[in-house]
Amino acid sequence: MFPGYAPGIWMTYGAHFPLGKNRVVAGQSPVMEKIPRARLELLTEARKHEVHLDDENPIHVRRGVVTAPGSVDPPVYHPYLEFGIRLKGTGHLFIEGLPFERLPYDVYLGGINQVHWGTTQTVPMEYITVYFLPGFLSDWGVGRDVIGILNRFSNSLEPKHHLIRPDRKMRNELLKGFKAMHEEFRSDEFGKQIRLRTLLVGMLVELIRWEKRNGASYNASMVTSDDWQPVLKAMKYIRAHCAETVYGREVAREVGVSETRLKMAFSRTLKMPWVKYLQICRVHRAEMLLRQPDRTVADVAFEVGFQSLSHFYRTCRAVTGTSDLRRAPKQS
After folding, report:
1. Contact at 8 Å (CB) between 234 and 251?
2. Are 196 and 184 in contact (CB under 8 A)?
3. Residues 278-309 pLDDT 10s
């Protein structure tokens, strides 16, 4: 069971959606619903994530459809940022255990390892989701604009700020951008990676501009480049060396800060210690290897950096909610 998700818990529906003149704020019209025990038990199973990114290919675009009304996607976790739009269908999106109504054209901006899952009410439910490594943004430097984009996905934001509902003009621009990214991702044309990055950054810039014009303000604004710079470097180092024995002093030395400063930077930006990010990377890589039918759990556990099977199982349960990655439901 994920921490804090108790069977029979009462939850409040309601989200903060920037709507220009028609803004809806959390708590205005909440609907109380008691989540059935069986449904919550289903939600404790963590979804396997079938996306693997690296510095050469830092962006993945997925388009999908759900045709079964009443279906529930188990919680998903991954070491990437997530930017997605719902094209059709209604339902709810649960962010860190809090449920929010999700309608067509609502946009989700997910932080690294932010636990979330969804329910489908009307079908077909269609979506396009972009997964990306935050480090590629540093190609544009780590100035105010890039920091503004990173902060928009920050785990330090309240869950309600991760889901927005654009007005007609903004959603049309986003739809065009998401569809262009999906088409580009499916192609093998020259300049694919450059265009994917350009399209993604362009959409994020326009979205944040639109939010600022409508008076949006977020508490993550106090996170600065002094926090993000060592974290971006540390994440790159950890991904490259996660199968090895990694010590905090090594990571700190690699990025040029003290261990204390590194700990503070991870806490402020990702709301987790650097060791948790290392665990996420190892478990995620283990999932990828366990898809190969000839691989055993023991072989994979040691290959991705765990010193014992018991440590591997404890970490899997802490990260995903289940110690059996092969039995964890696959992503739709």
Report:
1. yes
2. yes
3. 999 999 889 888 888 889 999 999 999 999 99
